[in-house]
Amino acid sequence: MTNNRNESIDMGLRNFIKTLGCMTGGTALLATTPWLTSCTPEKLEEAARERRARIGVIGTGSRGQYHIHNLLKIQIAEIVALCDIYQPNLDAAAKLVPGARLYKDHRKLLEDKDIDGVIIATPLGTHAALTIDSLEAGKHTFCEKAMALTMDQCKAVYDKYRDSDRVLFYCMQRMYDEKYVKAFQMIRTGLIGDIVGMRCHWFRNADWRREVPSPELERLINWRLYRENSAGLMTELGSHQLEVCTLVADKMPTRVAGFGDIVYWKDGREVYDTVSLTYQFGDGRNIVYESLISNKFNGMEEQILGKAGTVDLSKGVYYLEEDDLVFGVRQLLTQVRDGVFAAVPTAGPSWRPELRDKYVPHAILKQASGAATGQNMIGEQNDGSDIILEAFCQSCITGERARNVVEECYSATILCLMGNQAMDEKRVVSLPEEYIIPYMKF
Amino acid sequence: MCQLSFVLRQGYSQYDPDGRLFVGAVPQLMGTKLSGIIAGASEGAARFAWMEALSLAGELEALLNRFDPASEVSLLNAACGSGPRPVSPRLEELLAACEDYRSRTSGLFDITRDAASSLTVQDGTADLHGATLDFGGIGKGWFLRECRRILADRGIRDAFLCFGNSSILAMGSHPHGDCWKVSVIDPFTGDAVTERSLKDASLSVSGNRPGYEGHIIDPRTGAGLPGRRITVAMCPDPADAEALSTCAMLATGEELASITPRFEGADVKQYNY
Prior knowledge:
heterodimer; A: about 450 residues; alpha/beta; Rossmann fold; Dihydrodipicolinate Reductase, domain 2; nine-stranded mixed beta sheet; 16 strands; about 40% helix; globular; B: about 270 residues; alpha+beta; eight-stranded antiparallel beta sheet; three-stranded antiparallel beta sheet; 7 helices; about 30% helix
């Protein structure tokens, strides 16, 4: 069973890259998704022949254990060390990896010479310090998103990364999600025409609380609720969605306005449970962003609005304003290409242009999957981080960085923090010049 | 960057050299949409045939589109009641064909939509005698008939053209089968009404749609046909199929049984709800 699962996960990255390569060709792949060039099948083969990446995990709570489960399925990875300041979490992780060395102080783990790469799955407030420590210790580093709690911390991490030769990944798994990558490419080639705006939202109905065994552990375990360690909905959820917006637009918004408040969960938490913002690009286009956790009716969507159509990235579907170009023979075309001979529901009374009253969704990927429903992004299924995790392990062996991943995470985190500032101060916040990096385009 | 607005104006086409498969689509053509698949042909043959077909459609539209005030039919309609008017040889040919269809369908297929009126076509002139002309779907039939000729001239044997959902030309067969199979869909329920296998055949479907009922005029009464009926006509000739599916919307079962044998190879069915 273990072997089969190993194969399936390794095939995940291999097939992912292979499929994308087939879809795009090397040049197109490089042009639209340059971060993927560090993990081609050839490089993966080479890395696998060389040795396994020795991984240490800092933070073995629920997210850390999730990564451990995935690492155990990756053939080129070997978990050699675990670290957590909370003993129950460390004990739980140790049961998953019986042979791993155990630490309660991350500095001790970083001193361990037999570790190539470090995975950081700790509260947001600790990301910057741990990442900088890890890079300084010469470790390749993979950190959960978002990058940091403050803009100053983001800049410090970015500067450290720039001056380092180590690999740094952030868990921006949409950059390694097949349906997102395909959608980026389709949008770039004009599928929906000129992009005129973006709308993203993420709605849940849950209090975000975790059970606390003892009151003094409240701020440790429920760190997401308190500002000393959390930037709330923006960094926990919004960072993923704003990141895909900047990737698609290939530009950075320059200002933001919005409102946020604690509308329902008045339980002593400090972060907003409801946020609504508008980010504006220099050319006037907007990203409208909304998130709340007391109603889940609208679910999660990332809509890229084009003059000729709309792509919903999270669902992996697109809609055309003038649908549909190969009207009448689309299904037949699919059948012919798939070698299927069957009747197609083509004929009927004459089509009348004025009768079309709804948009028809078209799948971005041929195969229906959980990814296409967005279930993987909300934890109903694998959230896709196994692919980016494997790409990181490969980079731990080759030493090759994945282009743009750090820059994208930096940009998305800055946007999240700008949004929080705009809501806190109830004013329009512009991107501060001191946080502009050369990667950003406007 | 390829903008879709450009595609919408120019139509869409793509050729897959591995599968020797051409697909083309035009979102606005003769008031509806055209899409098609050409299988097993070279890219050059498929593209030339497709472009030639689109060019032909443009000519037919300029001739028959009654919503275009500059079309020949619009000009003729505007002059109705003023005696014989000169018409182009092409329109004279088409008007004569419609008169033939009117005769063979016992008056049920009537582009004047008025059984009391008559149309006189002779010596390069047409006299509408106060009626106006609406070619309706027969234009699609003529277009598909010409497409068949164009494709055959290019050596193309296997093709499937879908014109506005209701008119289908199936040449040869599906690359993985011995014919082309289509289902006819009831627009009120979405259910399949019937399934047909087409090989070197045409299919025409007539019927009312939700929100678009009564558009088929009974020339005997001048009233739109209410209710839910779908008719399916399968014939070797696309124009024959158009005439028959329209006629079948108005005919009783007995009338249809007597009319159908007048069309070679025709198979016509009525589905009432």
